[in-house]
Amino acid sequence: MANALENPGSPLSDEDRRTADQQRAARERQKQALNLQRENILSQRTSNPARRAALEAALAHIEAQLQAMG
Length: 70
Description:
By secondary structure, the chain is an all-alpha fold. The protein has one domain. The chain is 80% helix and 0% strand. It is rod-shaped, with a radius of gyration of 18 Å. The two termini are 21 Å apart.
């Protein structure tokens, strides 16, 4: 299956195509969830230094996940 996905000229079975579509949809849903979390963190305001540090750490973690996904 991996070779068929890497080579667009080769025919894919319906099951392979469906699996690839499901994986692509799952990645898109995960990206969307991470982007929503990112927006939520960016919208929060605080004067508490500990809370701000926690938000910055969470934001860095989310951005690293998004970058790893491509």
